[in-house]
Design a protein that fits this description.
The chain is α/β, with parallel strands linked by helices and 167 residues long. Helix content is 34%, strand content 22%. The chain has one domain: Glutaredoxin, CATH 3.40.30.10.
Protein backbone atom coordinates (compact mmCIF):
# COMPACT_ATOMS: atom_id res chain seq x y z
CA UNK A 1 0.00 0.00 0.00
CA UNK A 2 1.13 3.48 -0.76
CA UNK A 3 0.62 6.26 1.77
CA UNK A 4 1.29 9.80 0.65
CA UNK A 5 1.71 13.23 2.16
CA UNK A 6 -0.20 16.40 1.39
CA UNK A 7 0.93 17.89 -1.92
CA UNK A 8 2.16 14.47 -3.13
CA UNK A 9 0.86 13.51 -6.55
CA UNK A 10 -1.92 10.98 -6.08
CA UNK A 11 -1.91 7.66 -7.93
CA UNK A 12 -3.70 7.25 -11.21
CA UNK A 13 -6.39 4.59 -11.51
CA UNK A 14 -8.46 3.17 -14.32
CA UNK A 15 -11.74 1.58 -13.25
CA UNK A 16 -15.05 0.58 -14.81
CA UNK A 17 -17.87 3.08 -14.30
CA UNK A 18 -21.55 2.26 -13.80
CA UNK A 19 -22.16 4.19 -17.04
CA UNK A 20 -20.42 1.36 -18.91
CA UNK A 21 -17.32 3.39 -19.69
CA UNK A 22 -13.80 2.86 -18.45
CA UNK A 23 -12.76 5.79 -16.28
CA UNK A 24 -9.13 6.94 -16.18
CA UNK A 25 -8.42 9.46 -13.44
CA UNK A 26 -5.39 10.81 -15.29
CA UNK A 27 -7.40 11.35 -18.50
CA UNK A 28 -10.23 12.96 -16.52
CA UNK A 29 -7.76 15.37 -14.87
CA UNK A 30 -6.29 16.36 -18.23
CA UNK A 31 -9.72 16.89 -19.74
CA UNK A 32 -11.17 18.95 -16.88
CA UNK A 33 -8.19 20.79 -15.32
CA UNK A 34 -10.07 21.00 -12.05
CA UNK A 35 -9.95 19.84 -8.48
CA UNK A 36 -11.42 16.44 -7.63
CA UNK A 37 -13.06 15.06 -4.53
CA UNK A 38 -12.53 11.31 -4.55
CA UNK A 39 -14.89 9.53 -2.16
CA UNK A 40 -14.44 5.85 -1.35
CA UNK A 41 -17.58 4.23 0.09
CA UNK A 42 -18.44 0.81 1.47
CA UNK A 43 -21.10 -0.25 -1.00
CA UNK A 44 -24.61 0.13 -2.33
CA UNK A 45 -25.85 -2.08 0.52
CA UNK A 46 -24.67 0.38 3.21
CA UNK A 47 -27.44 2.72 4.46
CA UNK A 48 -24.93 5.33 5.68
CA UNK A 49 -23.25 5.29 2.25
CA UNK A 50 -26.60 5.56 0.49
CA UNK A 51 -27.43 8.72 2.43
CA UNK A 52 -23.94 10.10 1.81
CA UNK A 53 -24.23 9.60 -1.95
CA UNK A 54 -27.63 11.30 -1.96
CA UNK A 55 -26.11 14.25 -0.06
CA UNK A 56 -23.22 14.44 -2.52
CA UNK A 57 -25.67 14.46 -5.43
CA UNK A 58 -27.68 17.24 -3.76
CA UNK A 59 -24.46 19.25 -3.32
CA UNK A 60 -22.91 18.49 -6.71
CA UNK A 61 -23.74 21.94 -8.06
CA UNK A 62 -21.91 23.60 -5.14
CA UNK A 63 -18.78 21.54 -5.76
CA UNK A 64 -18.86 22.23 -9.49
CA UNK A 65 -19.27 25.96 -8.80
CA UNK A 66 -16.00 25.68 -6.84
CA UNK A 67 -14.30 23.79 -9.68
CA UNK A 68 -14.42 20.42 -7.89
CA UNK A 69 -15.49 17.23 -9.67
CA UNK A 70 -16.95 14.43 -7.55
CA UNK A 71 -15.81 10.82 -8.07
CA UNK A 72 -16.95 7.85 -6.01
CA UNK A 73 -15.35 4.41 -5.71
CA UNK A 74 -16.50 1.19 -4.05
CA UNK A 75 -15.32 -2.41 -3.90
CA UNK A 76 -18.98 -3.42 -4.32
CA UNK A 77 -20.10 -5.48 -7.31
CA UNK A 78 -20.70 -3.51 -10.52
CA UNK A 79 -24.29 -4.74 -10.97
CA UNK A 80 -25.24 -3.60 -7.45
CA UNK A 81 -23.59 -0.21 -7.95
CA UNK A 82 -25.35 0.25 -11.30
CA UNK A 83 -28.73 -0.56 -9.80
CA UNK A 84 -28.24 1.91 -6.94
CA UNK A 85 -26.79 4.69 -9.15
CA UNK A 86 -29.68 4.35 -11.60
CA UNK A 87 -32.31 4.27 -8.84
CA UNK A 88 -30.86 7.41 -7.21
CA UNK A 89 -30.08 9.15 -10.53
CA UNK A 90 -26.47 9.80 -9.52
CA UNK A 91 -24.81 12.06 -12.09
CA UNK A 92 -21.19 11.86 -10.91
CA UNK A 93 -18.91 8.92 -11.73
CA UNK A 94 -19.54 5.82 -9.63
CA UNK A 95 -16.65 3.42 -10.09
CA UNK A 96 -16.29 -0.26 -9.22
CA UNK A 97 -12.98 -1.33 -7.69
CA UNK A 98 -13.68 -5.05 -7.29
CA UNK A 99 -9.96 -5.87 -7.73
CA UNK A 100 -9.05 -3.32 -5.00
CA UNK A 101 -6.57 -1.48 -7.22
CA UNK A 102 -7.48 2.08 -6.22
CA UNK A 103 -8.21 1.02 -2.64
CA UNK A 104 -4.65 -0.31 -2.32
CA UNK A 105 -3.07 2.60 -4.20
CA UNK A 106 -4.76 5.13 -1.89
CA UNK A 107 -4.11 3.09 1.24
CA UNK A 108 -7.83 2.87 2.01
CA UNK A 109 -8.69 0.52 4.87
CA UNK A 110 -10.11 -2.77 3.62
CA UNK A 111 -12.28 -4.81 5.93
CA UNK A 112 -11.11 -8.27 4.85
CA UNK A 113 -11.25 -11.77 6.24
CA UNK A 114 -8.52 -10.85 8.74
CA UNK A 115 -10.50 -7.92 10.22
CA UNK A 116 -10.90 -8.07 14.02
CA UNK A 117 -14.71 -7.89 13.94
CA UNK A 118 -17.57 -8.94 11.66
CA UNK A 119 -19.06 -6.11 9.62
CA UNK A 120 -21.07 -7.07 6.53
CA UNK A 121 -18.32 -9.18 4.99
CA UNK A 122 -15.40 -7.85 2.98
CA UNK A 123 -15.43 -4.25 1.73
CA UNK A 124 -13.49 -1.01 1.54
CA UNK A 125 -14.16 1.59 4.20
CA UNK A 126 -14.86 5.30 3.64
CA UNK A 127 -12.03 7.61 2.60
CA UNK A 128 -11.83 11.12 1.16
CA UNK A 129 -9.20 12.79 -1.00
CA UNK A 130 -9.32 16.36 -2.27
CA UNK A 131 -6.96 16.65 -5.22
CA UNK A 132 -5.96 19.92 -6.87
CA UNK A 133 -5.68 20.53 -10.63
CA UNK A 134 -2.01 19.41 -10.49
CA UNK A 135 -3.02 16.02 -9.11
CA UNK A 136 -1.70 16.77 -5.61
CA UNK A 137 -3.42 15.62 -2.42
CA UNK A 138 -4.71 18.67 -0.54
CA UNK A 139 -6.86 16.81 2.00
CA UNK A 140 -7.23 13.18 2.96
CA UNK A 141 -9.17 11.21 5.51
CA UNK A 142 -9.37 7.45 5.90
CA UNK A 143 -11.87 5.59 8.09
CA UNK A 144 -11.83 2.12 9.64
CA UNK A 145 -15.61 2.00 10.12
CA UNK A 146 -18.72 3.58 8.60
CA UNK A 147 -18.99 6.30 11.23
CA UNK A 148 -17.20 9.63 11.67
CA UNK A 149 -17.14 10.49 8.00
CA UNK A 150 -17.60 14.13 6.99
CA UNK A 151 -21.04 15.03 5.67
CA UNK A 152 -21.47 17.02 2.47
CA UNK A 153 -21.74 20.34 4.36
CA UNK A 154 -18.43 19.63 6.12
CA UNK A 155 -16.83 18.69 2.81
CA UNK A 156 -18.07 22.00 1.40
CA UNK A 157 -16.35 23.82 4.28
CA UNK A 158 -13.15 21.84 3.74
CA UNK A 159 -13.09 22.68 0.03
CA UNK A 160 -13.77 26.37 0.66
CA UNK A 161 -11.16 26.61 3.43
CA UNK A 162 -8.40 24.83 1.51
CA UNK A 163 -9.03 26.66 -1.76
CA UNK A 164 -9.08 30.02 0.06
CA UNK A 165 -5.87 29.32 1.98
CA UNK A 166 -3.82 27.40 -0.60
CA UNK A 167 -0.25 28.72 -0.87
Amino acid sequence: MMAFQLKDKVPNFTLPAVSGETFSFEDHQKEHQSWHLIVFFRGSWCPVCQEELRELQANKEYFEKHNVHLLTISSDKMADLQEFANKEDLTFPVLADEKLEAIKAYDVFYHGEDAPYEDHGQHGEPAYFLVNEKGQAMYQQRQTSPFGRPHANELRKIVKYIQKNVK
